[in-house]
Amino acid sequence: MYSLxxxxxxxxxxxxxxxxxxxxxxxxxxxxxxxxxxxxxxxxQNKMKQMALAMHSAHDVKNQFPSGQEVVNLTGSCPxxxxxxxxxxxxxxxxxxxxxxxxxxFSQFNPNTSFATNREQGSGAANYAIQSKPLSMFQCxxxxxxxxxxxxxxxxxxxxxxxxxxxxxxxxxxxxxVYGNGVFFVNSKTRITDITDGTTNTYxxxxxxxxxxxxxxGGQNKQGFWSAGxxxxxxWRYFCNLTAAVEPINKPCCGIADYTPTTLRQSEAPVxxxxxxxxxxxxxxxxxxxxxxxxxxxxxxxxHRQVGAASDGLPAGGAP
Length: 320
Description:
single chain; alpha+beta; 5-stranded mixed β-sheet; two-stranded antiparallel sheet; about 15% strand
């Protein structure tokens, strides 16, 4: 006769097992995060691709791309609205909805009346209730701040160039510059034949992480959203759905530090002159030919600015 003896783990053995498991988790976690980000980046690129194709579909129907921002009652050689609260009309992001299978949503907007320019203009804006709704099509999954908001990671490119050499500058705040030498700008009617630099050498859409943060004079009610109109006065020139190739990739202007993933808002960060994303090392962009490219943070600033313009005879250095 003999008896079975049950041997249990000693405390030291248990601690060793726990330590091994912790090491394995530590080794696997970066790989899992890398795979997850690769999937998010691919989804982001696919969304931009659909938007770029939608722009070309709109061009096929109307023989021109949608306007970057439609505005009525403009005055002066440098565009200014007679009444910034009522003169804003349909942005490109609404005009393209029928071409991304969002025709029912498009039909809810009234293109012949004012569009809210930011969250401050909630009362009295005929389209504001629809503008306030989130639309995941405009949100990149790499940006952890986006779910539940009506902000956007995708912005049309109005042009590019040096901040001192191009565009219309506001008199009160020189960081706000309105460009008009790209594919999409205020009341633009760009045709493919107008892009004389070549569609492979010209930006169409850029990825941005700055719209949700752009508060210009403080307060979340100043932030824009995916379907916002434009606010243009001589002293303030503010918009959210148009940007330009002015600053280096992922580098805001004016001495403002870049944002952390948990930051919901910062003040005075002009979204209209910066590209950026939460992807490692750069951001996505859609070229005017519909192709999607990844722009590295190290992209030469002169080439970057030249590719923002549609017909300047450049870039001498070639497309990125």
